Amino acid sequence: MAKRLFDAVLSGCGLVVLLPLLLLIAVWIKLDSPGPVFFRQERVGRAGRSFWIHKFRTMRHAAGGLPLTVGTDDRVTRAGVFLRRHKLDELPQLIDVLVGDMSLVGPRPEVPRYVAHYPAALKAQALAVRPGITDPVSLAHLDEAALLAQAQDPEREYIERILPAKVQAAVAYAQRASLASDCAVLVRTLRTLLQRPSP
């Protein structure tokens, strides 16, 4: 209950405070490439329930392809390169937090395509909490696209090596997370992103 109240208050305040920035980003996206401002995608949330995640669009509209970003993906727009680098494309997920589909901190939600590869013994535990905008695993995989670019088969690399580690981390989070640890992750996230150089 305390975590949900924490999420609702901070996400609501964040949307109000960041409104000018959100509007500027929206204008930039519209000027940079044709298509909608927002990108919506089905993700799997708490207890396996699907929801639609919101992001600022960073790829060419209707670009298609795998739900993974590999290296310097040519689907990514000029504005998208900067937004992704600084994780500004994730800001609309404050809406998802406010309505209760997500939390500020928690395992990142996967698309159904990859949740299908969760080990049966760990799936329920990995999906026991609301997914989050940030978590320690996300911070450790900030350059995941570059890592996948080195693989001969990026999707296979993701499913066989990266995804199992993420599932294990999701289970560990569900078992040990607290409001204090969430606050520590939020502080670490802000510090990491503020110190991250531009592309």
From TrEMBL:
The keyword Transmembrane applies. InterPro entries: Bact_transf. Pfam families: Bac_transf (PF02397). Residues 3-194 form the Bacterial sugar transferase domain. The keyword Transmembrane helix applies. Signal peptide: none annotated. The chain crosses the membrane at residues 7-29. It comes from the Bacteria. One of its GO terms (molecular function) is phosphotransferase activity, for other substituted phosphate groups. Keywords: Membrane, Transferase, Transmembrane, Transmembrane helix. Belongs to the bacterial sugar transferase family. This is Sugar transferase.
